[in-house]
Amino acid sequence: MELKRVVITGVGTVNPLGNSVEEYWKNLKNGVSGAGPITRFDASLHTTKFACEIKDFDPLKYMEKKEIRKYDLYTQYAFASSEQAVADSGIDLEKVDGDRVGVIWGAGIGGLQTFHEEVRAYKEERPRFSPFFIPKMIANIAGGLVSMKYGFRGPNYTTVSACASASHAMIDALNTIRMGKADMILTGGSEAGVNACGIAGFNSMRAISTRNDDPKTASRPFDKDRDGFVMGEGSAAFIFEEYEHAVARGAKIYAEIAGGGMSADAYHMTAPDPEGKGAYLVMKWALEDAGLKPEDVDYINVHGTSTPLGDIAEPKAILKTFGEHAYKLSISSTKSMTGHLLGAAGAIEGLASVLAMRDSIVPPTINHFTPDPEIDEKLDFTFNKAKEREINVAISNTFGFGGHNATVVFKKL
């Protein structure tokens, strides 16, 4: 069968750099760090005392007061970004065929704060759990509730693949529309891991930075002195739409979703394959799916978490995938500014890729101070300062614990 083309017609976000798309993009271009001391809870007993928190988030802009206690933060973030994306798309909710619109969402963990609060209360205050415990906690509830809000009765589910969750959701959304099973899909991801469980859990794994004396420079992708990622939180949402459907209603189009790739490292629970085999395969297959050659790509928003092993493996995979063209690419890790949004990473970084194409600006990888001899710095990592560049094709990489890899390909129309 002939596959349908899929485009982006609406976007929205709340994240550590802003509570709107344009605020986020302004701070991203300017190399602003979203990191600072944790305010959400008392982190004094934790090894890491900082994170990239969302600032000035007001859930009352997106839901009624009585609903707030029913929804974990990760769901509240999903509501916020989704409402922005729906509004941005110009969809007429009175006329849209809800049977042909779905919600495919990504979340790596779901309601971690809810889990923590309920277990604490059970132990310290009351020998029972709230009736909202399970529906607040489960990772699929955000997508379900968003579909209820808008009456979107098409395909509805959540992908859970650690830090690749949102990218997998976006690829599934692409394929669902490609095959004619929906006209539009609201897709993206949300996560709210800045809480005692999230920080303590990743501290125990020695996965996050402990640079408490200087949080804003703690996320240092590809720097010799990197010591782990910085926890972030938030959400990004997209309206994916069948191209002819979008044109027929006169929709604004940001970019085409040209393809996606998925692979597994099949190597280790938390560490990447040291030679980047899975990362190579996922980029190779993503380009094949998009019908593009390596030399067609202009920009890669890399996974680039600021971890000792991951930041070595990914550049190896890029060199294997792109050969000599790798040195002509622009590369950046926006996690240096937003922190790591875990299951929402693919969405927020996919949004950065789309905005980079729109405005012909490559956002920087900030906090680079010392070269790492194990990383080929002839590659253009866009260190410390954004740069202007025409971008016709961009790809976004996300790699998750368990060896889950996903790459999304964006193309300028």
From TrEMBL:
<dbReference type="InterPro" id="IPR020841">
    <property type="entry name" value="PKS_Beta-ketoAc_synthase_dom"/>
</dbReference>
<keyword id="KW-0808">Transferase</keyword>
<dbReference type="InterPro" id="IPR014030">
    <property type="entry name" value="Ketoacyl_synth_N"/>
</dbReference>
<dbReference type="Pfam" id="PF00109">
    <property type="entry name" value="ketoacyl-synt"/>
</dbReference>
<keyword id="KW-0012">Acyltransferase</keyword>
<dbReference type="GO" id="GO:0005829">
    <property type="term" value="C:cytosol"/>
</dbReference>
<feature type="domain" description="Ketosynthase family 3 (KS3)">
    <location>
        <begin position="3"/>
        <end position="412"/>
    </location>
</feature>
<dbReference type="GO" id="GO:0004315">
    <property type="term" value="F:3-oxoacyl-[acyl-carrier-protein] synthase activity"/>
</dbReference>
<dbReference type="InterPro" id="IPR016039">
    <property type="entry name" value="Thiolase-like"/>
</dbReference>
<comment type="similarity">
    <text>Belongs to the thiolase-like superfamily. Beta-ketoacyl-ACP synthases family.</text>
</comment>
<comment type="function">
    <text>Involved in the type II fatty acid elongation cycle. Catalyzes the elongation of a wide range of acyl-ACP by the addition of two carbons from malonyl-ACP to an acyl acceptor. Can efficiently catalyze the conversion of palmitoleoyl-ACP (cis-hexadec-9-enoyl-ACP) to cis-vaccenoyl-ACP (cis-octadec-11-enoyl-ACP), an essential step in the thermal regulation of fatty acid composition.</text>
</comment>
<dbReference type="GO" id="GO:0006633">
    <property type="term" value="P:fatty acid biosynthetic process"/>
</dbReference>
<dbReference type="InterPro" id="IPR014031">
    <property type="entry name" value="Ketoacyl_synth_C"/>
</dbReference>
<dbReference type="InterPro" id="IPR017568">
    <property type="entry name" value="3-oxoacyl-ACP_synth-2"/>
</dbReference>
<keyword id="KW-0444">Lipid biosynthesis</keyword>
<keyword id="KW-0275">Fatty acid biosynthesis</keyword>
<comment type="pathway">
    <text>Lipid metabolism; fatty acid biosynthesis.</text>
</comment>
<feature type="active site" description="For beta-ketoacyl synthase activity">
    <location>
        <position position="163"/>
    </location>
</feature>
<dbReference type="InterPro" id="IPR000794">
    <property type="entry name" value="Beta-ketoacyl_synthase"/>
</dbReference>
<keyword id="KW-0276">Fatty acid metabolism</keyword>
<keyword id="KW-0443">Lipid metabolism</keyword>
<dbReference type="Pfam" id="PF02801">
    <property type="entry name" value="Ketoacyl-synt_C"/>
</dbReference>
<dbReference type="InterPro" id="IPR018201">
    <property type="entry name" value="Ketoacyl_synth_AS"/>
</dbReference>
<protein>
    <recommendedName>
        <fullName>3-oxoacyl-[acyl-carrier-protein] synthase 2</fullName>
        <ecNumber>2.3.1.179</ecNumber>
    </recommendedName>
</protein>
